[in-house]
Amino acid sequence: MAIDTSGVKIEDRPFDQVRQEAIDQLIMNYSHGIISAEAFERRLDVASDARTHQELVDVVADLTLQPDDTYQQQREKNFSPRYQAGNDTRNEKILCVLSSNEHSGQWLVPAEIRVINVLGSVELDFSEAIFQHQHIVIRVNNWVGSLNILVPEQVNVVSNMFNIVGSTKNRARSMGGQQAPQITIEGYSVLGSLDVNLKRTMKEKFSAFADQCRSMFGLNKP
Hints:
Elements: H1 15-31, H2 37-49, H3 53-59, H4 69-79, E1 82-83, E2 91-97, E3 100-103, E4 108-109, E5 112-118, E6 121-125, E7 130-131, E8 135-143, E9 146-151, E10 156-164, E11 167-170, E12 182-190, E13 193-198, H5 202-216
Parallel strand pairs: 1-7, 2-5, 3-6, 4-7, 5-8, 6-9, 8-12, 9-13, 10-12, 11-13
Helix pairs in contact: 1-2, 1-3, 1-5
């Protein structure tokens, strides 16, 4: 059996931990050519949508290949946020009036970002960003503008916005651990909108990582 059920009762183990173990085993076996791409996608759907421990146990019950040190190191590299010391940037101001402003790629994230947006459009994409601080504050003054924030799943996001005929939607689940960056968004929005979204869903991220592992172990993407 792929998931060890000989120790603590499987139902008493943290559910997210068991889910991650099942997904790791799916990726490991797919990347070594033990299961097909179709089987991997089908089983990944089951693991992603599972609501019980037994579903996770069953979806990998016939898989025997366990994640090794190489896999764990690669996973840590891909799913951990990047920090960089030095060249410390404490704050940054973004002024957007009747225009658009976009931050994306491998940009250095300061400790504080102040956004003044008047009838404009601002997008902050943290999916490839390099963090210098664990706690980041985005202070927003939004007047009839739109602010779109894209984050990877290992970054935690907290929104403390005050809206006046405006809207705030935070669709990013806080899945990062204690060492993960935390972005706190505070301020106000008047006749404007703030949307926080994941850059990619967890399933998309795991699928891309699985294809990367497959190439690393010498198998081409089918």
